[in-house]
Amino acid sequence: MITDPPTPNATPAAAPAAARQDLARVAQELEAAFLAEMLKHAGVGQARGAFGGGAGEDQFASMLRTEQARAIAENGGIGLAESVFQALLRREEAR
Q1: Is residue 1 part of a domain?
Q2: Which partner for 27 in 18, 41, 69, 84 could form a disulfide, CB atoms 3.0-4.6 Å apart?
Q3: 3-state secondary structure 27-93
Q4: Residue 47 · residue 53 · CB < 8 Å
């Protein structure tokens, strides 16, 4: 989950809690989408051998990768969501 350490330009009054939650959610969704693509290119969920399940298996494998990526992002991820969140927060507070 995204932690929200204090930054020099960030004050609690500058960004309302609801806006911060929205930014955190968007950042986490971006990380999950990125991870899903990385899992796809790594071959996660691809049929092995001659006993593949065809088009249906490909569709369900895609859903499985998406859910696995969401789970990874929700449990700390790779740090992308935190970086994006901090950048969005700075941008929002600059307005």
Answers
A1: no
A2: 84
A3: HHHHHHHHHHHHHHHCCCCCCCCCCCCHHHHHHHHHHHHHHHHHHHHHCCCCCHHHHHHHHHHHHHH
A4: yes
Closest by CA to 89, choosing from 34, 8, 35, is 8
Assess if residue 85 is contained within a domain. Answer: yes
pLDDT of residue 75: 95
Instruction: Report which DSSP code applies to 6.
Output: -
CB 10 within 8 A of CB 56: no
Whole-angstrom Cα distance, residue 9 to residue 94?
Answer: 9
At 4, is the secondary structure helix, strand, or coil?
Answer: coil
In a domain, 57, yes or no: yes
82: in domain? yes
> Structural domain of residue 64, as residue ranges?
17-94
